[in-house]
Structure to design on (336 residues):
């Protein structure tokens, strides 16, 4: 049986955000253990003109939230990008997971061919529900998850591929 | 209409590998322009005990190839991990895309609930066709794509998010 759109979104995002939460836990524990200022980790960047770990977490959350909001035509829930600490990032993830858990399956399923518009500063990008998930949301979501992983890994946090894949 | 398993695999991988090929082209062009030894880029690592760019490309290709081989019960095609140069990495990607393009849709569709076993050095991991794609193949594929991007981006190659997302 083919795969419902809900199953390509809500559980995928919850799973990924749970993984991200676990990676951040390992980052916070590493900072404590090594006596490192946690802000060194939460502010870590791959290169000076790329966003830090805090923003990677915010973007991952927003990709998940934005996708279900657009596809399900749900009331947008704004979240200010003010998180700086590991605790605040964990709260952002928890809030996003709670929002995802509250999305009724029937708001997502059947929306594969619906028009979904991503509004960007430089114009509107039209998708179908399916193309939005497959060509934008999933690649973008994993981009920010992997970048968060890369930042922690490069800083010496003992995370490995099995932490990224989660309980497969 | 729900999404067929073929559409969650073959076109997703071809799209991602095409993006990866474009990123490598930008890397090669940057090396030429700046007079950098291309091996500095193909051998770049995020940290000393993490695999270099060459391996990230090999792993992305193998995730795609392995997924369709396992789900479609296709004859395995071995590819030695000997690539060192941008040209060799491009050839590996092209060979993998050709293999993907030759996968008949009917070998993948309908295999959602089939047993699919991932053989690892430390034991077998059983999945269904669907869970294999959603919880292993797609996250793992984008992990290696994003890590390749991160390595090029950190080395100064002018790549941006739109290069990663491709023609959305």
């Amino acid at each position: 049986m083919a795969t419902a759109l809900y199953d390509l979104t809500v559980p995928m995002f919850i799973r990924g955000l749970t993984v991200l939460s676990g990676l951040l836990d390992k980052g916070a524990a590493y900072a404590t253990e090594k006596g490192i200022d946690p802000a060194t980790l939460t502010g870590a960047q791959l290169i000076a003109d790329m966003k830090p770990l805090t923003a990677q977490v915010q973007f991952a959350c927003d990709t998940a939230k934005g996708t279900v909001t657009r596809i399900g035509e749900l009331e947008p829930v704004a979240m200010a990008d003010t998180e700086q600490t590991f605790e605040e990032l964990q709260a952002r993830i928890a809030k996003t997971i709670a929002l995802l858990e509250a999305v009724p399956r029937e708001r997502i399923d059947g929306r594969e061919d619906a028009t979904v518009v991503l509004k960007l500063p430089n114009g509107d990008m039209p998708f179908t529900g399916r193309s939005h998930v497959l060509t934008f949301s999933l690649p973008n979501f994993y981009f920010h998850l992997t970048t968060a992983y890369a930042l922690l890994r490069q800083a010496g946090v003992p995370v490995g591929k099995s932490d990224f894949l989660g309980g497969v």
Remarks:
- The helical segments of chain A are 10-34, 38-42, 53-72, 86-101, 105-108, 129-154, 161-165.
- The first helix of chain A runs from residue 10 to 34.
- Strands of chain A lie at 115-120, 123-128.
